[in-house]
Amino acid sequence: MSTSTRWTVVVLAVVVALIGALWLQLQDDDAAPGGGTAAARDRRDADTAQALAGPRARADLRPCPAASGSAGPAPLRDVTLECAGDGVPVDVAAALAGRTVVLNLWAYWCGPCADELPAMAEYQRRAGDRVTVLTVHQDENETAALLRLAELGVHLPTLQDGRRLVAAALRVPNVMPATVVLRADGTVAEILPRSFADADEIAAAVDPVIGRETGGGPG
What is its main location (predicted)? Predict the structure, then answer.
């Protein structure tokens, strides 16, 4: 083998190694909080049922909605997630079928999300049975999510969605917090990629849709 050929082989090997290192770095970046794509898992290996028992007791979340027997929103029909409050698997589409739903997408490390969650809880209190507010935690650290909800005193039902399957299925922009309003027939009424300061702001954005769905309020 000539000297020039040997150098060519060496250069090619270095290029391949650099490409491999760059690919691994991109994979790590995507899996980090706030990364550009969904995390690889719904929750961490450390978040076993035993490890989550204490945080779940502290968070004291309301149960996730039960399946109604209907198919529910078409984009969500292949999505099954864990209910953060008790670990029970939830067929998301079936659980939301026949309901007017406000989905609030958030993560434990998101400051504006923490500011908004108590407002979502207050909005649910005011709205009563007209609407179901369901939060969706979009990071694989389920323990941190439960502890954050306990700290905030927010007891809304919550789905654990480390892979961000709900956002992908509903084509929600990659921002947090984000809110999606689903009609009772399963179609998307509004996607609101923004934060809300209080329950009044949420009502101003959501109630016109809720009113049309329930037959009351603004037409």
Answer: other
